[in-house]
Here is the input.
Amino acid sequence: MKPSKNITWVKLADSIEQIPFNENGLAEIEVKGKKICLANHHNNLMACTSKCPHAGGALSQGYLDALGNIVCPIHRYKFNMLTGRNVSGEGYYLKIFSIEIREDAVFIGLEENKMFNWLK
Ligand code: FES
Here is the structure.
C-alpha cells in the first residue's frame, strides 16, 4: 500500500488578479523561501519549479504555447504543466504543484515529505 501524500496548502494571494503575471501569463513567486513559476493560461492556474530541469533556465522568462505548455527561454524545451511531462521529447521531468482557487484565496499544494526535502 502506497503512503498517502501529505499536502500542505499555502495561501498565495487573495485572488488571481493579485498575482503579478507578466505579458506572457507567467510569474515567479517565493513560497517557503523557494522560487516557483506560476502560469495563467486562460484563467487556468498552474505551478512548477522556477528553474528548467534541463540547465536551469528561468521558466517565468519563457512563454506558454497555444496548448498551455511552458516553453523554456533558453533551449525552448516544452513542458506540460499539468503532468510535468517534457512534451518536446528530451526526456526531462518538471516538478509541478497543485493550485486551488477557493472562494477567498488562491492556494498552492506542497507535498510535505518530498516538498520539504526539495525546499532545503
Ligand atoms: S535550460 Fe531550459 S531547455 Fe535548456
